[in-house]
Structures are given as C-alpha cells and as structure tokens.
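To whoever is on call:

I kicked off a structure prediction for a single chain this morning and the downstream step that reads the tokens threw a length-mismatch warning. I double-checked the sequence; it's 292 residues and nothing unusual in it as far as I can see. Pasting both halves so you can look.
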Amino acid sequence: MVEHLLSRIEMNMSSFSKGQRRIANYIEEHYDQAAFMTASKLGKTVGVSESTVVRFATELGYSGYPKLQKAMQEMIRDKLTSVQRIDVTTNRIGNSNVLDAIMNQDIDKIRRTLEETSHKDFENAVKSIVNARRIYIFGVRSTASLAQFLGYYFGLIFDNVRVITDTSKTHTYEQLFRISGEDVMIGISFPRYSTMAVESMTLARDRGANVIAITDSMVSPLVSAADEVLIARSDMASVVDSLVAPLSLINALIVATVLEKKDEVTDTFRELEMVWNHQGVYDNNHTEINEQ
C-alpha cells in the first residue's frame, strides 16, 4: 500500500494543478500527519480549498477523500512511535470532551468491525475451535490481555487450551513444537504488529494447524498465514491501543463456541457452580433493605 499510493502520486504529478502538487508534496513529506486530517483541514494546511483536496483524491483514482485517507493510514500502520501517537491524539481531539470523543470513536470501531468482519470466516473459526484437539492462543504486549481473556473462558469450556503471551522466541517455539494438523491456533495482533505473532502463525500453518487471525485489516501481516481472518478495528494512532472492538469480537467468539457445545458446557458450568459455592469463591450475601 505504501508504494501503491506514492506511485500513484508520482505517475500523476505532471498532470496536477499547482494546488494539487502542493497536496501531493505535503502527503509525500508528512503523510503521518495528513492521514488523520479531514479534507478541510488538509486543504487549510497546504493553502487550497477543500474541493481541491477532494478532486485530488479522485485524480489519484480513489472514489473519494475517505479512500485516500485510508490509503495514507495504511502507510503508517506500524510506523507511528509513542510520541507521534500523543501528537496525533492531541490534534484529533482538540478542544472536544475527551470522554465523549474517545467513547464515540470506540462506538464507531465496533460498528465498522460489524460491517467488515467475515461472517463466513467467523463461522468457520468457531467450527475449527470446537473440533480442535488443542487450542493455541497467541497474544503479546497490549494484546496479551485479550489472549488471556479468551484463554480464561476457553479454559472453562475446553481442557486443551494453551495461551502464549511470552515474547521470547525460544519459549514460544517450545510451546508450539507439538502443534499439528489436528490443532487450531488463534493469533492476535494489532499495530504495531508483533513479529512473533507472524512467525508463530506461520509455524502453525506449516505444521498443518488451522490458523485464525484476529487483526485490524486485510493488509495486516497476519493475514498471509491465516485460514480465517476476523477483522476488528483498532486505533493505531491513539495514545493507547483501543481494544474495545477486538474484545467485542472475542466475546462473540466465546458465545458462539458455547452455543455450539451447549449441552456439554451446561454440565461443566453446573459442576463449576457447585465448586465455586463450596469454596466461597463469590460473595452470595445480599444486603437486605428494610421497608420503612
């Protein structure tokens, strides 16, 4: 995607108007900033009208400015440093209420996830998980919490779950060396993508295992090693990684798996409830409110 957008610009540079060349030069030099600007803001930044920016996008072959903006965002998918993320977040929120801005952005990510993830891949992933001899779940750094969350619930449903959250290549391979065609691996990674996630999923695929990717885009490096791809929108330019949509997707994956094994899971949880009650795991005391 990086070469694709820049090559489009270079191929069309001679035909651009003076204003369009200013946009092109700015994108080439500052695409990490331009990627999160509205058409209006980009126009003001380079000194052209908003309509000029929109025409520039169509001149490059995009259906509109949002498609051009998406192409720019793909260019920086795993290139933003933590300091750059702070700057971008500051510019995006501006004087808005932080609580409202962040929660509305997360609502939008869940909506986009629902629109973009493949229902067919989701159904196939559930079937693969239910039928697997062993289930491997890989997630490191910020996605380790997602892997552990998924592993916790799958651990209650199945007795064959292994969660890998270690960045050590040696330790990871030691946990994966028995993986085979009867197993399934779920790899979770978002920008900036984990090299170990890609390598682990590739190893699992080469050993014949069914591989499921939970990631943010079809241009993610995890896609090439996956049999099923579950898209969950993240926010690579936020100060922190937004994992609201990925967690919602994982919730759906857990529920779908439970429904596939409803009778067996019901028996399991009935026994677990007895153990939890006997051990006093949960506080079952309720405060009584006396009517006056």
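Update from on-call: the warning came from a stale cache, not from the record. Cleared it. Sanity check on the structure: Residues 287-292 have pLDDT under 50 and may be disordered.
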